[in-house]
Specification:
alpha+beta, Alpha-Beta Plaits, 9 strands
């Protein structure tokens, strides 16, 4: 039987989601806890990777298990085995061929920025104190919404067949102490959101014009785009699936 786990985590203490041979990761912690609870080595597969220091409000993971799992009891025991910065939110039975990565219809991210020094959001938001032209940023977002190829915002040497992403929604919003960038798309390239935020900050501070943004997109050259901002403010926000895969 195949299950989807809905998990959240604070990524500050981890070298990303995916298992690595020489670093501690969220997936490694989860697999270890599952192996202890199920008394069997258990492999998991996530809806996507998050880099070192990146957080997740919702990461979907699939796992296979021969026994029927009691959702509430299973989650309680698994949460007790996991570190305090990783939490299981739900467990759902899915069709045997359901795939956490390939069956996702959309993913969304949020990037949080605080504009005044704030010790209580250390490692969970990015401090950027310069004034921003939000209208100009949203004009830039309109340009991005009409784009399909985001090679200029992808890490190089990635194993992908193409750099096409369909953005369903994107917006830059004011908050009580700064801003939040929201973006939802059918897929994301490695490092894409952090590179987009870095470039939009350049637009908002008028270091990069709208015409220059268009040139960056046409160049398909990562070095032309803005810096990759800190992972502290980035959250995998939600992963969506067709309801018919749930049993």
């Amino acid at each position: 039987m195949r299950y989807f786990l809905d998990i959240s985590y604070k990524g500050t203490n981890y070298s990303g989601w995916q298992i690595q041979s020489n670093a501690n990761t969220v997936q490694a912690e989860l697999n270890t806890a599952l192996a202890t609870l199920l008394k069997n080595p258990t492999e998991t597969l996530g809806s996507g990777r998050t880099d070192a220091g990146v957080h997740a409000n919702q990461q979907i993971v699939h796992l296979d298990c021969d026994e029927i799992l009691n959702g509430e009891e299973f989650m309680y025991k698994l949460n007790s085995l996991l570190p305090r910065d990783i939490a299981i939110r739900s467990l759902r039975l899915v069709s045997p061929k359901a795939h956490a990565r390939f069956d996702a219809t959309s993913r969304s991210y949020r990037y949080f920025i605080h504009a005044q020094k704030e010790p209580f959001v250390e490692n969970s938001s990015y401090f950027f104190h310069q004034a921003l032209d939000v209208d100009l940023i949203n004009e830039a977002i309109d340009v991005l919404m009409n784009q399909m190829d985001f090679e200029s915002f992808s890490k190089i040497h990635t194993e992908v067949n193409n750099f096409n992403c369909e953005i369903f929604d994107a917006r830059w919003e004011l908050t009580a102490n700064g801003y939040v960038f929201f973006i939802r798309a059918n897929r994301f390239l490695r490092g894409m959101v952090r590179a987009l935020v870095g470039t939009l900050l350049d637009v908002g501070t008028k270091r990069t014009s709208i015409d220059q943004l268009k040139e960056i997109l046409e160049s398909k050259n990562r070095s032309k785009a803005g810096r990759s901002v800190s992972p502290d403010g980035l959250y995998l926000d939600a992963v969506e699936y067709s309801e018919d895969i749930y049993l």
